[in-house]
Amino acid sequence: MNIEVVKSKIHKVTVTEANLQYVGSITIDEDLMQASNIIENEKVQIVNINNGERLETYVIKGNRGTGEICLNGPAARKATVGDIIIIISYASMDFEEAKRFKPVLIFPDTATNKLV
Q1: pLDDT at 86
Q2: Which of 8, 22, 36, 58 is catalytic?
Q3: In the chain, where does DSSP find H-type helix?
């Protein structure tokens, strides 16, 4: 039996941009992606602390060291600049493996979206 478990989590980052005219997705600073073990095109869940919205999309690599967190396309309707969000990715694995698995959780500074 396989189950889904949290693989990676970027806990509380601030939305720096919302670009409705972009094709879609979320752009994330490459430093945050690397630290959280999230890769480009990976499916993620976005949870907006400010308004309770939840959505799923995929990741686009942002410029390293910028703190960039940009919701693109229709996702831009789910958050505004300044909102605090949580970004979560999941993995499917065997039940016994899941018992031993440890997710990567990071807690950036919400004022800068940089690692502390």
Answers
A1: 98
A2: 58
A3: 30-36, 95-100
